[in-house]
Amino acid sequence: MARKRVTYRPSKAAGIFGVLWGAVFVVIGLVVVIPSAGAFGILWTLMAVGITGYNAYCAFGKGYAGPEIHIEEDGEDRAPSASGDSVQQRLQELRNLYDRSLITEEEYQEKRREILKEL
Question: How many Cβ atoms are within 10 Å of 64's Cβ, its own excluded?
Answer without folding.
Answer: 15
